[in-house]
Design goal:
429 residues; Immunoglobulin-like; five-stranded mixed sheet; 52% strand; Ig_sub2; immunoglobulin domain
């Protein structure tokens, strides 16, 4: 039975409830009676209550691809309607993200699921909302701003900046490399702890592409954008296939092939050649060279080296193996020595001589030419005497008691200088 209080007043047949509360909900009955009889009438009072959200249950941090359940614990009369928001925007439900009652389900969470989730409850009395933050730990983003510097002939230093860490600290980086000539990437290191690395043991003057991946406890990022550069030049290997060919008595022709390892842009070749008494060097930019001004019929040895660089100095490689060629023959530069002539009868004269000095032959002396005439002859009569070791000759068929002048010259591929004239008179007949 209700009695008057600070909130409830009964006046005659009226009931006044002030500051109605939720627990005022219920069945109310009014009974009237007199000495004849009594009568009761009842009515049910429903107190409508604005929604109250007590808490939003669910994780605040999950790992990539985990399922998520948010549950909005609330009450209100009539039963509130629940709408879920993410970052202040109403969530468009899909087969992966959907609501069931006051619950929100997220299947196989990803990076886009990180954010602030709001449960909004409303009924005819009012509305309320509560927000819970969710962080989904995902693999990091790829590193940024890759740069290559400190280039040498065998190394490249690469630097980069970390990308988004996926809400989990980056634990290491992986550096991958490939040459310009191959599409296959190979791993240099996958346990790099800093944002820079020097790649060693590279080939000189070669284009390399590099890219970097980041790792956190969830996994690896995608590869970064690639950067590329060319290693510096270095000394080349030796030229190959050096060959020499005798052209004439003073010229030898050289040919060769490029080094198998150029290690840069080939700028110049240096040819070193020598005989027993001296040596010389000559440079060229081509792959052939005539070596001129040589001594006739002389052995020369040749070797060659190549150079790259030139900014600021040339980088010379090792010399090739030696090759040897002998220059061609030429006419002797001296005449036979000590020519002597003496009558050996009325119709003959003996001629005797010595070989030309050693070093003056300019080739292989194949014999001698001897020529003679009388004072009244216009032309000389010339005789070929075969063999370098034939050092005398008996001139026959001469006129008796006649004065003859005689001279002799040695011959290789050409005739050398003549001796001075020597005279002798045949005997009387």
């Amino acid at each position: 039975m209700l009695t008057n209080s600070s909130r409830v007043t009964v006046i005659g047949g009226n009931l006044l409830i002030r500051n109605v509360r939720r627990n005022d909900t219920g069945m109310y009955s009014c009974t009237v009676e007199n000495f004849l009889r009594s009568q009761t009438s009842s009515a049910y009072l429903t107190v409508q209550v604005s929604p109250t959200i007590h808490e939003v249950l669910g994780p605040s941090r999950v790992q990539w691809k985990q399922n998520i359940l948010f549950s909005c614990k609330l009450d209100g009369v009539p039963t509130p309607r629940v709408i879920w928001f993410k970052d202040m925007s109403k969530i468009p439900y899909t087969s992966r993200i959907y609501a069931r009652g006051s619950e929100l389900h997220i299947i196989s969470s990803g990076n886009d699921d990180t954010g602030n989730y709001t449960c909004e409850a409303s009924n005819v009395v009012g509305s309320t909302k509560m927000t819970r933050q969710l962080i989904v730990e995902v693999p990091p983003n790829e590193p940024l701003n890759l740069k290559i510097r400190e280039i040498t002939s065998t190394s490249l230093q690469i630097l980069w900046h970390p990308g988004f860490n996926g809400y989990s600290p980056i634990t290491s980086y992986k550096l991958e490399i490939r040459r310009n000539s191959t599409p296959v990437w190979s791993t240099v290191s996958e346990r790099i702890k800093s944002e820079n690395y020097t790649v060693d043991y590279l080939k000189p003057y070669t284009v390399y592409h590099l890219r970097v991946l980041a790792e956190n406890k969830i996994g690896w990022s995608r590869p970064s954008e690639r950067v590329w550069n060319r290693t510096g030049e270095d000394s080349p290997s030796s030229p190959t296939g050096l060959q020499c060919q005798t052209i004439n008595s003073s010229t030898i022709f050289l040919t060769w092939n490029k080094p198998s390892l150029p290690n840069g842009k080939l700028r110049k070749y240096n040819i070193q050649y020598s005989n027993q008494s001296n040596h010389a060097d000559v440079s060229t930019a081509s792959m052939t060279r005539y070596i001129r001004g040589l001594q006739p019929f002389t052995w020369y040895t040749f070797r060659i080296q190549a150079a790259t660089g030139g900014n600021p100095v040339l980088l010379w490689g090792n010399y090739s193996s030696y090759v040897s060629c002998r220059s061609g023959q030429a006419a002797p530069i001296d005449a036979p020595r000590n020519l002597m002539v003496q009558s050996s009868g009325p119709h003959s004269i003996w001629a005797r001589w010595q070989k030309i000095p050693i070093g003056s032959e300019n080739g292989i002396v194949i014999g001698y030419y001897l020529q003679y005439k009388t004072p009244w002859d216009v032309n000389y009569t010339r005789i070929f005497i075969a063999g370098n070791d034939t050092l005398q000759y008996n001139i026959t068929g001469l006129f008796p008691w006649t004065n003859y002048t005689v001279q002799i010259a040695a011959i290789t591929v050409a005739l050398g200088p003549w001796t001075l004239l020597r005279a002798s008179e045949t005997d009387e007949s």
